[in-house]
Write a structure and sequence with these properties.
heterodimer, A: about 200 residues, mainly alpha, 3-methyladenine DNA Glycosylase II, Chain A, domain 3, Alpha-Beta Plaits, two-stranded antiparallel sheet, two-stranded antiparallel ribbon, 5 helices, elongated, disordered C terminus, B: about 550 residues, alpha/beta, Rossmann fold, four-stranded antiparallel beta sheet, 14 helices
């Protein structure tokens, strides 16, 4: 009887050693760098890098959300981002915190080029390097890279940067879903018989 | 007899083709203005290469394309460039786009035309380049540049070339009439394309509701290897994927192109354009378009210069504007309502329908889905229209995509059979658009993140380099100091300063002592007298 107990113990020990080794190997081999949640949150944020949330960029805000901060501080993302974040984190969506700004239509910065003095201040402010220029040369915004973050407007000493709302473009146009219509029985107004009650 | 296969689903809507086939193709009169959109094809829009006020000849290039995908635009007649401006273009959005406005001078003077006598002696790429330079884009509806379609990926061997003369959509008779009257040109265009592709099999597919066209094409292809295949009439047999399935029994893979299974499909109108470009040296400046519907008294098929406003064609066909209820560009199944008749005919415009209220009444209100499943039976792509509808409506785009939303060809068969009159295709189109927007935004935010991170890295590096330089400077300074000190110590220890160095340092010492004495003296004087006037040194 003792032998069978010993065999069982030995077998279990051997199994424990094998699987422990396997798990240990897997933990080393497939180690995840950083917090994957932060990555996921960061990928939902709009990456405007505008800092309206109070953090210096989208990633720091993602880190802060992962640590339990409020999810409603991103005005460029607006309702959609809040909803996506709420879905991801399985919490209730909150209305956008007006303290950090309001949701606006997509905009891009445009430099009025003949007024630009070439001070490079906006270039230094741009978080995504979307402004092209050199000292004492005219600057211009690369429209396709501009995130509309607003950060270049304040540093400009001659106020020659405008934030322009993007106009609808025929090439970016898409179909809209059908409008919810009246139900079938409402189609024709009830016939008036002409006889007054 | 060629073997035919079947595709699933499909419908039989009322054809209404006899409206516009009663008389031969009529040449449309010259309008006062031709409006030529810079984008009449898929790809990059062309760029105007003429200036306002310039005189141009018929067939002259007025807009060129620099990108890989795109074809130039040519002047359809001689005249003066009046403007290059934003004008309404034929597009479902009803928005404006850049157009060149040409005022014809009525002379219709050709620029130099250069026909190729023997294209077979040329390089295939030269012929393809000519097809591009002569502005040819698919004339069936999508407008994909023909030269690109005729140059399949290197690893794909195209064995079958199909000329699509099915024209399955109701009302449209442009291809039908073209086949009746220009069968020879169609066959010669087909031959050129077959030569470019080295195709082994050439098929011209025509629906069996066009007996005259079948006869004409059979006559033109007599004694050649080209097969004329008569296919049963069923919408949407003229859809590229459906037609390939009917003729070869093969399905175009999802996300794939027909060349993946060794097939290429071209429209009959495109064949005419290719033939004219090679044999006559004429660029694509006109097309055959059907003007039909019961609101015009004289419906028919017209040979129209590109850029002719739809309003001009309608007045030629005798439009009764009291009767007009809806103006549709394209067919009743896949076309869209025009907001203004001022838009021009472009390379892809095959039909304009001026419909009366009885003909195409406003769609009845949408009712709830009763899960009858008729849409799934009608779907030629074997999708699940009901599920796609639920997911599209609920905004569950991932699920819709998972059910192959992007394989939907938007033929409208499901909406046609829906007893609850749900505009299903409209939901799918909206969902597709939403997915495309999301993807674009995702890409853009990804790029913004990359750029932001790259900038962060750069700033850090610059900071580090600065720090490094500062440290190096500090180190150099301390080293220099230490060196000096050791030198001084060495000289002190040796007690044999070189004579001039000693003299110099003695001088310095002396000067310092003098200065010290002077200040001390001045201070003492100031302290002693406390005079009002400060002592001034001269």
């Amino acid at each position: 009887m003792w032998t069978s107990i010993l065999i069982a113990v030995a077998v279990l020990l051997a199994l424990a050693v094998i699987f422990g080794g396997l798990l240990g190997f897997a933990a080393e081999r497939f180690k995840v760098e950083g917090n994957p949640l932060i990555q996921q949150i960061d990928s939902l944020l709009p990456q405007t890098q505008c800092g309206q949330c109070g953090f210096p960029g989208c990633r720091p805000y993602a880190e802060s959300i992962a640590n339990g901060d409020a999810i409603n501080r991103c005005p460029p993302g607006g309702e959609t981002t809040i909803k996506a974040l709420a879905d991801l984190l399985d919490i209730e969506p909150l209305p956008l915190d007006a303290e950090h700004g309001v949701e606006q239509e997509k905009r891009v910065a445009v430099i009025r080029e003949d007024e630009c003095i070439g001070c490079t201040k906006c270039i230094q402010a741009c978080p995504v390097d979307a402004i092209l220029g050199a000292a004492k040369q005219m600057h211009t915004v690369i429209e396709s890279e501009c995130t509309g973050c607003d950060l270049c407007v304040d540093p400009c000493p001659v106020d020659c940067i405008d934030m322009v709302t993007l106009q609808p473009d025929i090439r970016a146009w898409t179909w809209t879903p059908p409008k919810p219509t009246i139900i079938a029985t409402d189609r024709t107004p009830p016939e008036r018989t002409g006889v007054s009650a | 007899m060629t073997q035919l296969w079947d595709f699933s689903g499909g419908i039989h809507p009322a054809e209404n083709k006899d409206l516009s086939t009663t008389r031969p193709i009529e040449k449309s009169s010259l309008p006062e203005q031709l409006i030529l959109p810079l984008q009449q094809h898929i790809g990059a829009p062309a760029e105007a290469c003429v200036s306002v006020g310039e005189k141009v000849l018929k067939g002259q290039v007025i807009a060129t394309v620099s990108g890989a995908i795109g074809v130039p635009v040519h002047a359809p007649t001689s005249g003066t460039i009046e403007a290059v401006s934003m004008l309404p273009v034929p597009h479902p959005s009803g928005m404006n786009d850049w157009c060149i406005v040409l005022a014809p001078d009525g002379v219709d003077e050709w620029a130099e035309r250069e026909a190729i006598a023997d294209y077979r002696s040329l390089d295939r790429d030269t012929v393809l380049e000519r097809i591009r330079e002569y502005g040819i884009a698919g004339m069936g509806g999508a407008g994909f540049p023909t030269n690109i379609k005729l140059r399949p990926p290197k690893d794909r061997k195209v064995s079958t070339l199909i000329l699509n003369g099915a024209e399955c959509e109701p009302y449209i008779t442009a291809d039908d009439m073209a086949m009746r009257e220009c069968a020879d040109e169609i066959v010669s265009g087909l031959r050129i394309m077959a030569w470019i592709l080295r195709a082994e099999r050439c098929v011209i597919a025509i629906e069996d509701n066009k007996p005259e066209a079948i006869e004409a094409v059979k006559k033109a292809t007599a004694n050649t290897q080209t097969e004329v295949v008569v296919i049963p009439t069923r919408y949407p047999s003229g859809g590229e994927k459906q037609l390939i399935q009917i003729l070869t029994g093969m399905e175009v893979p999802s996300d794939g192109i027909p060349a993946d299974i060794g097939v290429i499909c071209q429209n009959t109108g495109t064949a005419i354009a290719v033939s004219r470009a090679i044999h006559q040296g004429e660029p694509l400046i006109s097309r055959i378009t059907t003007i039909t519907g019961r609101a015009v008294s004289n419906p028919g098929t017209y040979d129209v210069l590109l850029g002719t406003p739809v309003a001009h064609l309608l007045s030629q066909a005798g439009l009764d504007s009291w009767q007009l209820h809806r103006l549709i560009l394209g067919g009743p199944m896949m076309g869209y309502t025009l907001e203004t008749p001022g838009v021009p005919v472009i390379k892809t415009t095959n039909c304009v329908i001026a419909a009366t209220a009885e003909e195409l009444p406003a769609p009845p209100p949408e009712q709830p889905c009763i899960r009858c499943g008729m849409c799934a039976e009608a779907c030629p792509m074997e999708l699940l229209p009901q599920q796609l509808f639920w997911h599209s409506k609920a905004g569950e785009l991932e699920k819709a995509e998972h059910l192959n939303l992007f394989d939907c060809i938007e033929c409208g068969a499901c909406s046609y059979v829906c007893p609850s009159s749900i505009p299903l295709v409209q939901y799918y189109r909206a969902a597709k658009g939403e997915i495309r927007i999301q993807q674009a935004e995702y890409l853009k935010s990804d790029r913004a993140r990359e750029r932001f991170e790259a900038r962060q890295v750069r700033l850090d590096r610059e900071q580090q380099e600065k720090e490094q330089r500062r440290r190096e400077r500090a180190k150099a300074a301390t080293e220099a100091q230490a060196k000096k000190q050791t030198e001084a110590e060495e000289t002190g220890a040796q007690g044999q300063p070189s004579s001039d160095r000693a003299a110099k340092s003695a001088q310095v010492q002396e000067a310092l002592a003098r200065k010290k004495a002077k200040t001390e003296h001045a201070d003492a004087a100031a302290a002693a007298t406390k005079a009002d006037a400060r002592p001034t040194d001269s």
